[in-house]
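Example 1750, ligand zinc ion.
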Amino acid sequence: MAAAESDREVPSALCTEFLNFSVKDTASKWLQVTDLYKEVYHHLARYVPKIYCLGPNLNPQSEDLLAQMLLQAPLEWYLCGEDPSTGLAKLEQNNQPSQLCGHVFKVGEPTYSCRECAADPTCVLCMQCFLGSVHKEHRYRMTTSGGGGFCDCGDTEAWKKGPYCQKHEPNISDSCQEDPLAHLSTDMIARCYNVFSVVLKYAVDMLTWDKEDELPPGLEPPDRSDTYYCMLFNDEVHTYEQVIYTLQKAVNCTQKEAVSFATTVDRDGRKSVRFGDFAFCELAKSVIVVSSLRNTSRQSKPLRVQVMHSSVVAHQCFALKALHWLGHVIGYSDALRRILCQVGLERGPEGENSSLVDTLMLCDSKMWKGARNVYHQLFMSSLLMDLKYKKLFAIQFAKNYRRLQTDFMEDDHERVVSVTSLSVQLFTVPTMARMLITEENLMTTIIRTFVDHLRHRDLQGRFQFERYTAQQAFKFRRVQSLIGDLKYVLISRPTEWSDQLREKFLEGLDTFLELLKCMQGMDPVVRQVGQHIEMEPEWEAAFTLQMKLTHIISMIQEWCATDERVLIEAYKKCLTALTHCHSGFADGEQPITLSMCGHSVDTIRYCVSQEKVSIHLPVSRLLAGLHVLLSKMEVAYRFPEQLPLSELSPPMLIEHPLRCLVLCAQVHAGMWRRNGFSLVNQIYYYHNVKCRVEMFDKDLIMLQAGASMMDPNHFLMIVLSRFELYHIFSSADCRKRYNRENANKDVVQQNNTLTEEMLHLIMMVVGERFEAGIGQVEGCDEIKREILHQLCIRPMAHSELVKALPENENKETGMERVIDCVASFKKPGVTGRGLYELRPECAKQFNLYFHHYSRADQSKAEEAQRKLKRQNGEDTALPPPVLPPFCPLFASLVNILQCDVLLGMLGAVLQWAVEPSAGHWSESMLQRVLHLIGMALLEEQQQLENSSEDNDVYFNFTLKMSRPGEAPSNTASVLALLENLQNAPHLEVHEDMIRWLLKTVAGIKTMRERSASTSTVTASGSRGQEETACDKDKAERKRKAEIARLRREKVMAQMSEMQRHFINENKELFQQSLEELDASTSTSLEHSPASSDAALACVGPRRSRPREKRQVVTCILCQEEQEIRADGKAMVLAAFVQRSTVMSKNRTRPPHDPKRYDPLFMHPDLSFGTHTGSCGHIMHSHCWQRYFEAVQAKEQRRQQRLRVHTSYDVGNGEFLCPLCECLSNTVIPLLPRTMGSSSCEQPGLGQWLKTSGQQIKAMHSAHRKLQPVSEYWNAEHSVKGTHMFPSNPYSSTIKEMLTTFGTATYKVGLKVHPNEQDPRIPIMCWSSCAYTIQSIERLLVDEKKPLFGSLPCRQDDCLSSLARFGSACWTAACQPTVQGHFIRLLAALIPDPQVEASPCILDVDMLHLLVSVVLSYGSVHSQDSSGLSVDAVQLHLFHLITVAHMVQILLTSGPEEVTMEQESGEAERGEEEGACRLYNTLRTHVGSSLPEVGSGWHLWRCVKTGILPYLRGAALFFHHLHGVPAPPELHALCPGQWEVLCGYLSLPSNLLQLFHGQQELLEPLLHGWCTHPGIQQTLQGGGVLVSFPRESNSLIDLPDDYSALINQASSFTCPKSGGDKSRAPTLCLVCGSMLCSQSYCCQTELEGEDVGACTAHTFACGAGVGIFLRVRESQVLFLAGKTKGCFYAPPYLDDYGETDQGLRRGNPLHLCHERYRKIQKLWRQHSITEEIGHAQEANQTLVGIDWQHL
Ligand SMILES: [Zn+2]
Ligand SMILES: [Zn+2]
Ligand SMILES: [Zn+2]
Ligand SMILES: [Zn+2]
Ligand SMILES: [Zn+2]
Ligand SMILES: [Zn+2]
Ligand SMILES: [Zn+2]
């Protein structure tokens, strides 16, 4: 098999050749020949097959070395004419480096674009250039590169400003105009030219070579062997899995090899899978072909395989090498680069388009991926880096464009590996784009190629996407890249037009109009009546096309806007195109006459609800856009004679857009329900922000354009007719419509909705004036208004606003320029995101009928705005805002508001509203009518205010509205109707609005009267009027405010009632938490009287005895109260036990072997610990058991039924706390406080040592000699029941719970199966107690909180139960076992000849020792007859361990720091002397491995700071064990803690007295400790030396700028697949390792399962818990075990206070320290697993993710 001979030796034949080979001689020979080409080919023919491809496995290192020696070196020598090492150096020295950076991007590398200065979004900088550029102070966008493309630094056309970074800044002696060849000798140029010609020709020959068994002439090998490769090629049809499967079958390789083959094929595009003689390879080929066909049922294509002769493969390998070499050599000099470009573009013998570059391009789709990548790279570093040749290359590219695109369509590779993707490098250069348009007619070429590839047309020649297959869909996707190219060409608008550019642009426009004509009217729909449609028609393709073209259409308009002549011509062309379209579909439409209110108009009979209608009208819409430009650029007024205005037929212009709008209205009215979702989706996109600019908006504009050229009455009648409402409003007695017509409720309902929609349309036609050219507005008014209306709905985050606004082709919304005028920014807290809020003064510009609101938006905005007004104590009318005036071309539109037909319609609706509705009219209909009246009144008011002379104002709505209705009898006027409706009880909601209308009418009347009498005082007069109105307003507002206040009070009363109710219902809960509060606060209160007379002590015979207190708790499940008693029912706390490495000081320590590990002593590096946490909720043990059984049963049923996971693993004992849903996996029993016996006589240290020595001896003889634990449980000890248990004080349920918790801790802590008999159970419990105390002590330090009184009660309860459980757990174990533990623990301090292998004191964590030894003493004491009190023993043990810890600290204190020694006061003199003395004693024992330290100050400081965490931990421990209240000083962070702490612990504040006071007794112990062999070993660097105090671990430091991380990740390669880029680089935030996540390559096996790199890492680094940052996604990942995980918001925010998960927006991201600290706190608190549990409960989809594969 292939893997065998990987270390191939260089064949000896070649060795001799190599030894005899002289580079210089070869080069000199070449220098003399005339036909270099033949000579070099001969050389290559001889050597290449000897170097490359000699076996099944390629050996790149040795091949490259040989190729360098035998092939490249002579070329270089020839090139330089001398030794290349000197020649190339000279070249480099003389080189004037290019100002272009040209750095080619790797996959995932960060790129930067300046949003202010980049010519277009494709202009990017590499990180180095960006950091040295001016743009880093600008608004920039950061993205990750998809690979390919290069840095545009230095390209003056790419940047409006700051084109150079500091590094690429051109020299002052600007030499860029100079020809780089000037520095080279003609000889050199000639040689260079020769050698490049030959090499490039060779590379092109070989890479485009398609014969498998032959070589090009001149390259035939001297001797042919029968060696072949079976070469597998990449395609995009077969999946990874299919390829792997096929290979395993066909070539009989392992899964691993198949994966590696498939990976290489995917990366390089081909890979040899077999090597051997021809027959052998041919066989493999046929098997692959057949089996790939068989197991891919869907695709008809087999995998592509070729059997190639080894010499062909060899030459192709070297051809790639040769291209690399060329790229390398031209890097030395710009002159060489230029020569290479010249060689490449030189026309070949076959005439046009036959240069080597052309040949490569045209063969692109035939080459394999690897070859394409290499030559593309060479193009980028040569042709694209030389400004002169870039242009020539662009021309060739444009000439070949059609061919290349066609090849690309046929090819199935992604676009990034196609030469067509180079278009972005060429077309985005503005001068180049323009040149290609004028000289190569590029615009036309692109559009024509595009149209040619969309072949599916209907009878009228329109595109047809119905019945469109998957393959066509695939093609369609590929064709879309052409639109991208067109976009590049158009992205920068010309500043100057030449006649030629005009001509070619208009030619391009013609082609474009041809394209649009194919779209006009495509995908028409017909309303389905009766039956529902059978199949949803395909609609997405047409919309995709529309969406892709949206920016192109906009850009074409912008181009037209830069030149009047072009605009006029374009307008004409577009109109012709539209007329042409209309001739096609005006058939069969009969003319009819409409008449109403004394006006009549001719139109056609057409019903949207009965005939075909299409939503696609791009030609009409383009014309609408151009029409606005006529007005905006004033062409319409300056050159009316050049415009075909007389040819315009307004009814024709509006017809199709109107149909489209009516279609939308009918869909809203529910008339098209049977047409299915396809139509609903189309309507949605028609209005959607992605499409509306070139769809809905333009239809509206076309209506405005048409209406402005028509009689308003005629316009409205046509509108009524198209809405199919004409019959209602035109009938003589329309005002009584519903009295007789109440036949069909559905029809009435439909007509109501249609009327609403039509009224809305009229409002929009008259009111939408914010587009420059329609209304007299500035460019930014439109966007301001959009933002304003979005923020009227609610405050929004930056990204939400961006999503709601249309983006231009540069992905800009223009929001940043104006946002501050309309909104203020509110920063986010630790959660949530920053929000923009509308400035209050902008609220008056709110328009309820804003044309871009959906119905949902509208009602939300209405509610929000009314609420706002109420809060301000204003009336709730939402009148229309004041509008800007129209441009002259559209000015006549206002007449719609005062035309007879409209007044007739208004009157009708108002008349209907007199009667209560009962469904005959609707509230929103009336609301719209009122709004329209308001608009008309404001129009009149505005005109009056703005006119200098009264007779200017022809607009007189007030007059018209006071006139009685016309036909048939004198009906009431609009004004009269309004007055009538004002007090109608059923119209209360509209009361404010009607009042506002009437007030405005009155105001206008006054204005007219005043101005009629004295035109000069108009202004002041109206103001006076306003003032009285103002007073009235004020009174009104006051009344309203009073009402609001009363309402508020009522609500408050209701709220507090509800709260009371809630408390009653949950009484028990509240009581319980109050009691808890009481319990923890009472500890501080209890002592206050006591503390005044006697100091509090928590350990030793003098320890304070807290008063007996009955402890009563309530079960959260049955709500019954229960007293905690040893003989009572067991009460338990829900608890979660987990392994932890949070405090680890040594992450390299391998995990222990769970079966053999002896956990008795914890190493001070704390590498693995067991943490216990609790939510503090208490249950009866039996209630909990019943609950857990129910959960188990439910889970079993669920798993059978649904096979879904839960966030917790019942099989592993996990459950959610029934009250707070906190993840738990066991329960801790609550135990009463241990009552120490009243103090009796206190034995001294000496006496105790003696007594305990005797005791231990007695125990030894009682049990026989104890062996080290490891052997202890391997030997089949049957320890059960052989020993007598002392009387057990606990009830049976408590005993049971003791076992439960003990077993759980043991199981989780050691990762073993539960075994109630295992002697390690009590050890694990003590250890967990100690570890949890230590972790809480650290947390309190980190959070800067006092030792006592700041913990939440759940933690207090948890610690108390843990400590008390620890002291009781021996009762559940075998007593001799626990006594054995005690003996061995004590032996670490007091040498015991009977105990072997005691650890050295440097290998023992003293708090763990203290906790274990104190807690295990219970088992000894129970059999004690010596009369020693427990308290006395505890104190002795504590003192002894404290001394040992001091020794430990001094031994590890390290050399003296050179800091200023502070002159300490008298007080500490004693301590310093003591420390010195102890240290010197230690030195006498240990010897020279302890450095000499003279400073007592330093030593004492080491002891004091080093021992503090231990003392604090001990205080917590004894406090919770004995329940002695802590002194008040420890409840705060005040100075003097040390003394208080020592006092509380019954220690002298000069700790050294512990030693010096008992020196003669302790000296032998000290000696024993110091002479332990482990000491010397550790001190001399043989072990892990932990120094004290141990610093708290932190998560790794993250850079402030997120792009630094991206950059770091982009250079990270997968550690397993040799140099490949990792797709999902993921950073461990605990240790800083970068991992290759979510990928086949880095899966490993863990406990028999394949897991991804992250999961594997968590087991080593975090004991199963992990915190990662997925760098490409900007997402934090929490993992716990193999099945649990969740994503968490990253600590990186943009300037708008938002995270960017997925890195889609590209705003610069910076580290938010607060949020990172929050994540760190979760970790330090051991809350990661809990957080995951909550996330998974909240979001069930998280449960289904295969976290172990990440
Ligand atoms: Zn750069
Ligand atoms: Zn640069
Ligand atoms: Zn900039
Ligand atoms: Zn209960
Ligand atoms: Zn709970
Ligand atoms: Zn890690
Ligand atoms: Zn990998």
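Summary: The pocket of zinc ion (ligand 1) is lined by residues 101, 103, 125-126, 128-129, 151, 153 (CB under 6 Å).
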